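Record pair follows.
FIRST:
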Amino acid sequence: MPTALATILRDPLLRAVSIACFLFGAFAASIAPYQSLIAIHVLGLSDRTYAGILVSASLVSVTSAVAIGVLTDQGLSRRSVALASATAMILGSALVWLRPSPGAFAVAHALILPAAPVFGQVFAMARLASLPHPPLQRDAIMATVRAIFALPFVVVLPMWSAALSQGAGLLAIYPVLAVLAAALWLVVLFGWPKSLPQDRPSGQSFAAALREIGHPRIGLRVALLGGITAAISTYMVLIGLVFAATAGRTESEVALFVGFVAGLEVPFMLAMPLLLRRVHRIVLIALGAAVYGGWLALLPVLAPTPLVWLLVLPASAGGAAVLTLPIAYLQDLLADRPGAGASLMALQKVSGDAACAACFAAGTALSGYGLVALMAGTLAALGGGLLWWADRRQGF
């Protein structure tokens, strides 16, 4: 059986999907570690206001993702949706670039950028493109595509580290975001087909699709995965604030730490198909959640010391499991509807973002960033353990 990477390189659609995933990863890598720093330290928003932006972004994101996921399963062009999403990314980035102010930041990050469900559409298209391949190969393809999303964190963040250490301001990120979004728009325009023979309309009404997505069996698992995702979101919110405000480290060190974590995540992600032959997926998710929650709780404690750099290993190992494996897990819950499956990914993210916002608001009000990390880390470990408990009768 050819390797997943070789399959992707030979398949024009998988190549285009992977390039789009790389560009979106570069977009996320450029802004995710610095968004909270820009909001609070550069533009002067309060912790409470920024928490409100996170909540608003979560609501907008989940509403658009669920609606678009159902509509694309009903026949709405996935290519058109991806083009519209890339357009929103261009507009949101350009708004802050051309008018850097608290109001522009709030509009871009609370309303415009969250309404662009590119991540879900990329993986819905990847799922469809992988269907002609054998079942074992499909999981490997999806894991490889997810690793491609992480790859820009290795490539792009060292570049930002160098640029920031040479005196570039954090707001210089936004013109770069606009260029990346424009490149993504071009890849979708010229590389994605208008339709695929295996992408058949679901035949479900909108209400029936929503009832299926909201079924308690599915909703419980999405919520538990959201608890794990809260730790990932909290990491991206805290890393810049903890390094700069608590540990007195530079912005370039933020980029290096995140880059090291992402760089080590890639080989761990590529190893997941081999691990899955020996260990059940749900066990790996639970173990990954416990490891991820543990390192996050230690981050504010070790940030002022050289020992913080040792955390990149558990961060990358746990992150590889909790970032990669839930994608196929959620898509398998609605295997015949890739759009609805992608919307479950959005629901997982929005529940995680909402929990992250709650942890951030409560933790900063009661104590500080250390309590935020502890709350989110505990939530991740609890979510992984309860997910294992919910699926414990699957025969592993």
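SECOND:
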Amino acid sequence: MNTSNTSEIKIRSVTVNDTQKLLEIYAPYVENTAVTFEYTVPSVSEFENRILNTLKHYPYIAACIDGQPVGYAYAGALNTRAAYSHSAELSVYVRTDCRGRKIGSLLYRRMEKELLLRDVTHLYACVAYAGNTDCYLDNSSVMFHRKQGFEAVGHFTGCGIKFGRSYDVLWFQKIIGG
């Protein structure tokens, strides 16, 4: 699989047939990082259910090279109350050997377009943050979201514990429509 050129990347909607490949992308984040505060890699059936539940209301997209997913992004409800219907929380994961190739940026740009078509105008991201980076968290997600035009709007101190260490959470916001 050639992973050097972003022009070869195709963005498409995810199907349940992608479950195993997406789970392979996600698993190293669970097992080796504090990027996600999930402790255990979900089962294939649990991950499939997550995809199906997301697709009921929100986009779930994959970046593919040679037809194989190398990254994915999805949106979800910021809150279930009706007044939040124009807001969504975003997540993005890129295969570890494909990071730094603008795949996350391509996914977020497409996600913004798809969400605007659904009248979602306020985007949010919950990002793990280490005041002092370590082997589990390098704060690249913080830098990524800033490059995407998100601004930090909230800082929760020490609210996540993983690998016996305490991590902060930053909430980011980007307004993409009126």
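COMMENT: Strands lie at 10-13, 60-65, 68-77, 87-94, 122-129, 151-162, 165-175.
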